[in-house]
Amino acid sequence: GPGSKADVFRRRLHLLLARTARHRRFAVPLLPLGSAEQQQYTELTPVQALVGGTAVSQQRRHVAGVLSQLEDGRFFLEDLAAALPLDLAHATPSIGYFTENSVVIAAGQLTPSGCFKVTSLEFPPLEPREEALSLAEGFDFFGAGPIDSDRYAWIQQREAEGVSEGVMFIVIAGIALDHPQTLSRLATVFSGYDAMDPPPRLFLLLGDFFTTPWSLASHQLHAHREAFAQLARIIASNRRLKEKSLFVFVPGQGDPGPCSVLPRPPLPRFFTDPITDALPSALFTSNPSRLKFFCQEVVILRSDLQRHMQRCAVLPPLKDAADPFTHLATTVVHQAHLSPLPLTSQPVFWDYDFTLHLFPAPHVLILADAADQGSTVVNDVTCINPGSFSLDGTFTAYYPATRTVEHCNV
Looking at the structure, do residues 351 and 251 belong to the same domain, yes or no? Predict the structure, then answer.
């Protein structure tokens, strides 16, 4: 119902405000502070305390809330109690894309008109994965059952002993099977890795699997099924890969399915049966999806998120401070959400918005995008965009033992 939509934003705000309140910089002190500690502490002023105020004050204040556009062309900072009009004309943002619906911390002064003149804009502070897990020890965030500390230590030991530096995951996105060069490029990649000993442990194959977005009016049903059958034959012709590698398929926004709303269900069986016949171990997952390799958690999203974020940004990003992918990865990790966008730009199923949350932060975040491939590390999260295979033959290898990334092309 309508309450579910409100819960989407309420949960996101609660999560980030709680994380901010735990951070050393914003945590309310229990005892009087010395002069040095006073300089490190930043007090957050509730939005409601400033609403309706008209007194001119030179005191710089910090306010946290959701960046909202409650009126056309006019932005507000909103929390659960009130909304404060903003003047962003002179605001300097930190690294990232600041879009409507983002949770932000704004610094500035209240003007005589009651508008908050923002001088700087930043995201809520980050929290290491270990600290987040310690707050809810025993709670199962992943969904495969809770793991106690002894079991976790045993898994860590097995990972240290059994995962060599040669173990790798191959991530290939934008595999348009109807593109003239895609199948021949895939054959080259698979045959090359088939000759390795051992071959890659995992192949992540991400959509879109066709150049033209799917629609119910499409007359390409059997052509699409045959394209997957061709892919199955190419994979099956490489004996080592067929026997020792796991293939995971993640749909793109334009692939066969009910709609482009997140999260998306797996590819329909009508198209994937030829692959299952050739590769019984193949997995077909939702978008986004999550997997675990020993203690490492990997989150995978296939969406042209960078284009959407650039288009919806309220302020232009700091171009000299970081490359576009670093801006994107920083935004997603700080917001702890895979789609920090207006719902008009990227709809989500309200009741399943929790599947897009990134709490606690994963070890690896794959943001597969049609933009140029890239990688960066944010808050100890290895963020990867493998690039578009059908456009320029790019893909990525990830080595879990060293948590390093290798960008490849064919």
Answer: yes
Cα–Cα distance measured from residue 304 to residue 311, given in angstroms and rounded to the nearest whole number? 11
- Do the Cβ atoms of 67 and 100 come closer than 8 Å? yes
User: What span, in angstroms and rounded, lies between the C-alpha atoms of 40 and 153?
Assistant: 36
What is the extent of the structural domain holding 196? 148-303+346-409
- Kindly give, in sequence order, each residue whose CB lies less than 8 Å from that of residue 108, ignoring residues fewer than 6 positions away: 60, 61, 87, 91, 116, 117, 118, 119, 120
pLDDT at residue 339 in the model: 97
Q: How many CA atoms lie within 13 A of 100 on its CB side?
A: 17
Q: Average per-residue pLDDT in the chain?
A: 91
Q: At which of 80, 104, 122 does a domain end?
A: 122
* Residue type present at position 62: H
Most confident of 43-52, 212-221, 401-410: 401-410
> What percent of the chain clears pLDDT 90, i.e. is strictly above it?
76
pLDDT band at 36 (very low <50, low <70, confident <90, very high): low
Beta carbons within 8 Å of 150's beta carbon, 6+ residues apart:
none
Encoding tokens for residue 197? 């000993």
Per-residue pLDDT of 135-160, as tens digits, reads 877 676 777 666 767 777 777 788 77
pLDDT confidence of residue 56: 55
Cβ neighbours of residue 269 under 8 Å, at least 6 residues apart? Answer: 276
Q: Determine the Cα angle at 263 with ends 262 and 265, to 5°.
A: 125
- To which H or E segment does residue 68 belong? strand 61-71
Whole-number Å distance between alpha carbons of 36 and 94: 25
Interacting residues of 380 by C-beta distance below 8 A, sequence separation 6+: 128, 129, 361, 363
78-87, 132-141, 238-247, 391-400: the lowest-pLDDT one: 132-141
Nearest partner of 397 among 245, 202, 224, judged by Cα: 202
DSSP string of 275-293?
HHHH-TT-EE--BSEEEEE
Same domain, 271 and 397: yes
Q: What are the pLDDT digits (tens) for 48-66?
A: 999 977 555 668 999 999 9
**What CATH number is given to the structural domain containing 387?**
3.60.21.60
How many domains in the chain? 2
Give the number of other CB atoms < 10 A from CB of residue 338. 25
Dump the DSSP string for 6-48. Answer: HHHHHHHHHHHHHHHHHSTTTSPPSS---HHHHHH--PBPPHH
Element (H, E) at 203: strand 202-206
